[in-house]
Amino acid sequence: MSRICAIGSASLPVLCGLLSAVGSDALAQSAQEALPPVTVEAPQTARPRVTNRPSRPRSASAGRAARPVAPNATESAPDQNRTLTAGAARDGLNQAPAGQTATTIDRSQFDNRPAFSVSDVLRDSPGISVKQGNGPRDFGISIRGSNARNGFAIRNLVIFEDGFPVTQPDGLSRSDLIDPHAYGAIDVIRGPSSALYGNYATGGALNFRTRPGGTIDGVEYGVDGGSYGYLNNYLAAGKKVGNFESSLFASDVRGDGYIGNSWFNTQTVNFLGTLQATPDDRFTVKIINNDLSTRLPIRQSLNQYYLNPFQQGCATGATAAPGCGTVRLFNNGFNATAGTDVETAVQAGLGRNDRRTIVGGRWEHDFDNTMTWRNQFVFDDRNISQPTGTTSAIGDFPSYNYMSDLTKRGEILGLESTTFFGAFYNTLTASSDTRNVMPGGNATLGRLSSNLFSETTNYGVRAREELRLSPLLLAIAGIGWEQTVLKGVNTAYSYSGPTGVLDPPRITVADRQFQNTAPELALLYTINSEWLVRGRVATGYGTPQVSNLFVLASGQSGNNTQLQTQKNLGYDLGFDWTPNNTLKVSATGFYEFFRDELVSQATPANSPNASYTFNAPRSEHRGIELAADWKFYPGWRFMAAYTYLDEVYTEYVENITNGAVFSFNRAGNKIPGISPNELTARIGYDEFAGPLAGLGGFVEVQWKDSFYMDNANLLKAPGYELVNVNVHYKTDLVSDTFRSLNLFLEVRNVFDRTYVASANNIANTVTGAGLQNPASVLANTTGSIYAGSPRTFVAGMKVAFR
Length: 802
Fold this sequence. Notes:
The chain is mostly beta strands. Helices cover 6% and strands 53% of the residues. It has one domain (2-801): Beta Barrel (Maltoporin, Chain A), CATH 2.40.170.20. The strands form eight sheets. It has a 22-stranded antiparallel beta barrel. Strands 1-6-7-4-5 form a five-stranded mixed sheet, with no helix packed on it. The chain starts with a helix and ends with a strand.
């Protein structure tokens, strides 16, 4: 249906919009009408109260219209839609906006396990794929394949914490600051979402919700420890006193790492406070600070991975074991005149020393029970020192984000209506250096390789209307307009002779402006108390990052300023079936058409830049997302999340240079980095009565299919299946001091499988005669692979104090 809609006549878009609109997870909520509301701590069928508005119920327009497909998602009943305030409706736009395909993962799914990173939590949502990044808790998070090709950090989706944006104006997010112990729920919003979230939301959005102070109601201390020196001490404290509610989370995490040169030490502080100053005014403050220090191994070739996946015996280059990754460093720190030295990551002292500080404030004012005005400001500073290879990136990236919006509830022609209108402005200005790394250890820095001065600014408006056409039918229409301004001056430096005489700098200037508009339409239809059908058609866009404009395919600095905005048009169609309180099944099919998709691939080893970005003129992404939750016998529970992806280039000619330029048509090829099948399934048992009450456990299986690593589809990264086993015990304590005790033990990768946790895309190469080199040659291309963790044992304890 989506393909016909995309290429059909002028009358088809209206029909397709309606057909598509017959499905979207928002409809799913209506199927839960008879289910009672619960708090975020319980894996039931009512949506938890919004953490920063504890006195207000959850928005039906967001809750009813966007029932998450995850088995533990919580929703509110549709008939509440007539009584909720405009403020409550606004709260839902960051959690499960009406018409959006969405999943909520609540705390019950990870409260009884040692959640080391966000990857341990997000796998419970369909549509999500996670890959290891540059650091212990730096993970690439992909929604529907959106970020699977990126070598580090997170792109093509927008991330929030308690409604505050933690994606910077250049579209970059990092997961280093995310400690799952801090959160009560995580909202996964899937599909093109630029109408509501603006630039970079081509894949969707994530909203992490910290636990409100009233839920913690005291102090909790926890500790996790296990294999490879892993230790996490964390503390949560919270209280609600009168009109003020606050929560504070702090953690100290460290470990030796399971790969050579991967020890880490990171501290995180996360604060949320809300004051109900008057009956009509609320003030919220959000503070996050993360300090990270970690060593980094070198990404391997596929052949090196097979030889030595955990890079053991790599302390020195001269006596390094087979399979060790190496970098070639200028002995003098500026050119090859004095020779070069080949060093391992341990020798060179490669790593990251980063700090991230986010401070946000929000003021909400209710004009009356039908209209709320919200103003929000966020200061976000990312400070980096990253000697990750032959060069080190050094810079400070301060950004400012302001948004203001009005939400109005009322009637239009006698029909219930929720209207939203907002404006926003955000900007980032930075000057960052790239310096050569020299031999000598401890990431000794040589001379300046390049400097990038960059400015990124986005501003625009967005509007949205939710109209209940009948008690069982909800229509949603939205549109966003945005202006993006990218300015940059890249200065590349080179040095001649043994003394390093500075050559004339090579200066490349970019001044690009992009205007983008993103409409969306959805319909949500409740057939009866068991069936909810949902459909949506929506658009997304993402502009390049300023740094993308100055990296050539060779990895050298140069002019790549012709990059265009990537855009996608997506259709969702799905249903949610809840025949009783013990079974929930959800399914969503999607088809997305991309134009000028921004694709990144690793550059050759020892190049000054890690990745090169290009536009693929046309591509198509299609797939299926399934989720199930079945309580098939008292105490027993089965949960599963499955994603199928089929993503191909439909128009793309790649030019490869080897003396001459040779062209290859990639139309019909799979987009590299995309695993076609991913599954997480868990079966568990918890004893609820008797002397063993509180004792439980589960067995979990993770399957990731093999996938291509190159545009020609010649080389594949192997897939894997992992088994994890968990045993836990939780009991309430009858004491004036202690409230509860939680103990758990988990064995991960029980069968000690060696697997690929991350494989960056690699570039195809050709012979002098213009023939593409085969997979046997590509398997020697470095800069791609990190191995996943071998068998590990992790135990933990949490104590709650009154």
